[in-house]
Amino acid sequence: MKTLRAIVLTAVLVSVSxxxxxxxxxxxxxxxxIYKFNDVADRYAMKPVAKAYKAVAPTPVRTxxxxxxxxxxxxxxxxxxxxxxKFAQAFTDAGRFVINSTFGIAGFIDVASMDNVPKxxxxxxxxxxxxxxxxxxxxxxxxxxxxxVRDASGLFIDTVTSDPITYLHNTGQIRAHNQVRAVQLLxxxxxxxxxxxxxxxxxxxxxxxxxxxxxxRRASLIQDGLVPKELLEDEFEPADExxxxxxxxxxxxxxxxxxxxxxxxxxxxxxxxxxxxxxVAQPAQAVDASESVVSEATAAEMxxxxxxxxxxxxxxxxxxxxxxQADQAAAEQEPVVENEAATAAMVAGVDExxxxxxxxxxxx
Length: 364
What we know:
The protein is mostly helical. It has helices at 2-18, 28-56, 59-83, 87-102, 111-114, 124-130, 149-161, 164-170, 174-191, 193-202, 206-222, 229-232, 251-276, 296-310, 323-332, 340-360; strands at 138-141, 145-148, 287-288, 292-293.
């Protein structure tokens, strides 16, 4: 009768799971209330006991107890391996159970892991998911914690069929069953001490964090390590595609922008120069314009060369300043402004000097 009731209950839960909407948490209000109850019970009862157990029990003892319950859970894994037609994996898991139960002293020593035998985890909830049954609504079970409609029904089936601890209850050893189950719950809570501290410190909404993490982990277990894409997508709306992306520009476009931004600067500088009507003369520098203009320094060099070739007396030449005196004079006075009339006069004076020197050369 118990097995029949379990099958009927599973069928009802699976049908509810198949009719569930796309909302992954339609019972959020109820779930948050149960989550709050579990949080209070854990904070004031289970967590302090787990910390005391971790502080009192040596590490080898805690590790041995964890290995013992893990080895018992291998039987559930083997059954669900067969239900999922994973025969090679079932053979490996059955080998783990035999090795740890014999050489590992009832599973307290994980000899199979020392021999690099792979470990798997399968349950009836994963089997239902493997055959296409949806997860259904997200549930938070009292004391047990996160689950779904499918996983809750799977947990019930595993507990009444393939869990060795249940057989203690079925054989009338109720007290032993309760004690072993309490130790199992304590061991599992001790293993989660660091994880719960991380969730409380790192997440703004621990409930939402636990829900999303559980759903992603279960989906990964069902698909043997793969997480469906829809669980990885965030719930925010994508950015508007019509909004241009200014950070992405081709080199040609960037160069065009730079040239356009530089053009007004050059135009402004030219207009300022025209408005002022002159340019500041720099020593020993030739200026190119529409007409060839010879600077004063260049004309002086030409006069010196001609004076050396014609042997003209120094007093006949115009007085010249050395470079240091010219720099000092330029620093003390305002910048010399050259206009077109001054430039023409300078060129005419140079031409007259050259003609005078040419005429005087044959006389000597």
